[in-house]
Write a structure and sequence with these properties.
This protein has 198 residues and is an all-alpha fold. The protein has one domain. The chain has six helices and no strands. The longest helix has 30 residues. It comes from Nitrospirillum amazonense. Its cofactor is Fe cation. One of its GO terms (biological process) is ubiquinone biosynthetic process.
């Protein structure tokens, strides 16, 4: 009698295991939710890279230029990562990406023209909105999406680093800081909402 050995193959995660909670009535399906996460994160990282590009066009040769360049380089790594995920998982980009290209650059350049502190105030507002967004996503993802969750948490830590850089560069001393901060943060939240859906 010949002995046979069984090879263990882990089962693919059930759709509900890829999210931390079971879907509620009216929720998107799991695949659609994951696609939405990747689409909005790619759009956000694209917009952030454009903001820093706009700031560098004004402040690139100033003493703070190297700091902004460091943050832009990290955003480009984030963007490249989500670009690769989009191809691998066949997720379409937001239809509004051409608008983000112009609007992100314009926001970066405009705040930089207001001065170094205003540019940093922009960074603080945007990165705090992104932090909350990434935290919510990470909480929703279950063990079946451990790699995506780890990526989001790593990038979230780097976005918080950018926020801290902005604060260290006296963002809060910008003239009219509460108004500028509130407008940019609200605008970032609105852009996130739109990019998830369009």
């Amino acid at each position: 009698m010949t002995a046979t050995t069984d090879t263990y193959k882990p089962a693919s995660p059930k759709p509900t295991e890829r999210l931390a909670r079971r879907p509620l009535p009216g929720d998107l399906g799991t695949e659609a939710q994951i696609a939405r996460i990747i689409r909005v994160d790619q759009a956000g990282e694209y917009g952030a890279a454009r903001i820093y590009a706009g700031q560098l066009s004004v402040l690139g040769k100033s003493p703070v230029g190297a700091t902004i360049r460091h943050m832009e380089e990290q955003e480009r790594v984030h963007l490249d990562t989500f670009n690769q995920m989009m191809v691998k998982r066949r997720v379409r980009p937001t239809a509004l990406q051409p608008l983000w290209k112009v609007a992100g650059y314009a926001l970066g350049a405009a705040t930089a023209l207001m001065g170094e502190r205003a540019a940093m105030a922009c960074t603080v507002a945007v990165e705090e909105a992104i932090d909350a967004h990434y935290a919510e996503q990470a909480e929703r993802l279950g063990p079946g999406e451990a790699e995506l969750k780890a990526t989001i948490e790593k990038f979230r830590a780097e976005e918080l680093e950018h926020r801290d850089i902005g604060i260290a560069h006296h963002a809060e001393l910008t003239t009219g800081y509460p108004v500028l901060y509130t407008l940019i943060k609200a605008g970032t939240r609105a852009v996130i909402w739109v990019a998830e859906r369009v």
